[in-house]
Amino acid sequence: MEFVFVLTKYNNISFKPQVSKTLEKRTELVSRKEHPQVWKYVDKMNSKEKASEEVLKKRRSRYKIYGIFLLFLGFFLLIPSLMEPKEMIIPLLVGAFTVGIGLLYFSYGRNLKKVKLTLFDKAAIKLFSEYEKISTVKVTVTFTDDKVQLMENVTISYSEIEKIFITEDLFILIWNERITVLQKKKLSSYNVKEFINFITCKSHNLFEVVNVI
Question: What is the pTM of this model?
Answer without folding.
Answer: 0.69
